[in-house]
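Q: Convert this sequence to structure tokens.
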Amino acid sequence: MEIELTTENFDDEVLASDVPVLVDFWADWCVPCKMIAPILADFAKEYNGRLRVGRLDVDAHGEIAARYNIVSIPTLLLFRDGESRDQHVGAVPRETLQAFIEPHLS
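A:
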């Protein structure tokens, strides 16, 4: 299950998580964001218990996007142990996103 992230729950859901968290910085008007959304929803189910997938609307929660210097969307940040460990920008095929995630799932 994907998590809808907000300014209010970001620290608890992402930074305090005991498993890696993939955060999708997106906006409703962003076509590439909509292209990867089904892939991320699949990952949330496929990696359940090993990875959490969260979505943060940059228009509604811009202060979090600013905290992590998000300037293009979609941007995916992979958090582990309360820190941003890796970043991917743009829409790419499922295989590319899977290759981005898997090294962080040890």
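The chain has four helices and five strands.
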